[in-house]
């Protein structure tokens, strides 16, 4: 992460804008919208600046830039068409430890301005780190079309309810479940959009008085080959709603970054033939957390139906022994095929298994004993039993590389 995304409270705080052209005018609008005390320094100004000055919305200082203009400022923006002046502003701000944005020169800037989707108080900022402003703008436009205009009203209304919700629901989990119910309630959203206060009050009262579901939930999510873009939509939703995520070493950092910050993470570190935590103990972890009424996601590398054949029996045990627990499966079959184009129909899947006369040690070390081996994908491996001097582990090289986030296809004789 090259930049830390933050939101600055600038209300009634002094900010300096150097530049008086069209670009500077756009920056001034943002600062004024944020409630900042804006001083604008330039040789010449667009007519709009004079309108703002006449309305006492900002202060104009006509003339050359001088570093003393930065005294007592919290933030500065250099938006002139003169690179030398912009550099002077940047260096003077750096010397005073004042964050400074330099238009069209992100390397000189100590902060950058994102594309903004304003649903105040809900704000969404989109940035390419200054590398591709057009891409950020296109993404912002796409998000603008998706996010309803009434989201701001919904966010403000939720702010009014926070004290009551905190008083009524004792635990963080209960409060989160309530907010999730409220934010997905179409009737409430429509009532807010229509300014129907009675309907808003009735719907809210109904949501507050309805009993919350305390049932635990266990969900198995297949993480695929490590590419977060190949997660199913349902799987992504489950990951982001989880109270506890139990994961293994095949789950990539990109996917783990999608987990909520406040969710508990339990590493069980499994790989083919070597288990840091035995499967039965993993099952007990899932049960123990779900019995507390928590949402538990078992995040497993690969596809759960290919790489965890005993998962179905674990799900049956959860449902049978604990009727209040649910076990769901969310996966996208054969993710590897989307990356490499390898067919994996049942006949080929079976043909890819090692012959029955292979010694058990070769089967285990190669990771090919069962599809549940973890790193190996039998459907893409073919050949005969290795000779006495051949390392059996080399058989799983191709599949091992295919399951890693930095996959590289390799072909080698078996």
Automatic annotation (TrEMBL):
Residues 119-145 form the Siroheme synthase central domain. Pfam families: CysG_dimeriser, NAD_binding_7, Sirohm_synth_M, TP_methylase. It catalyses: precorrin-2 + NAD(+) = sirohydrochlorin + NADH + 2 H(+). Residues 348-394 are annotated as: Disordered. Pathway: Porphyrin-containing compound metabolism; siroheme biosynthesis; sirohydrochlorin from precorrin-2: step 1/1; Cofactor biosynthesis; adenosylcobalamin biosynthesis; precorrin-2 from uroporphyrinogen III: step 1/1; Porphyrin-containing compound metabolism; siroheme biosynthesis; precorrin-2 from uroporphyrinogen III: step 1/1. The keyword Lyase applies. Keywords: Lyase, Methyltransferase, Multifunctional enzyme, NAD, Oxidoreductase, Porphyrin biosynthesis, S-adenosyl-L-methionine, Transferase. It comes from the Bacteria. InterPro entries: 4pyrrol_Mease, 4pyrrol_Methylase_sf, 4pyrrole_Mease_sub1, Met8-like, NAD(P)-bd_dom_sf, Sirohaem_synt_dimer_dom_sf, Sirohaem_synthase_central, Sirohaem_synthase_dimer_dom. One of its GO terms (molecular function) is precorrin-2 dehydrogenase activity. Residues 218-315 form the Tetrapyrrole methylase domain. GO terms for biological process: methylation; siroheme biosynthetic process. The keyword 4Fe-4S does not apply. Residues 150-208 form the Sirohaem synthase dimerisation domain. Belongs to the precorrin methyltransferase family. NCBIfam families: cysG_Nterm, PRK10637.1. PANTHER family: SIROHEME BIOSYNTHESIS PROTEIN MET8. This is Siroheme synthase / Precorrin-2 oxidase. The lineage of its organism: Bacteria, Pseudomonadati, Pseudomonadota, Gammaproteobacteria, Enterobacterales. The gene is cysG.
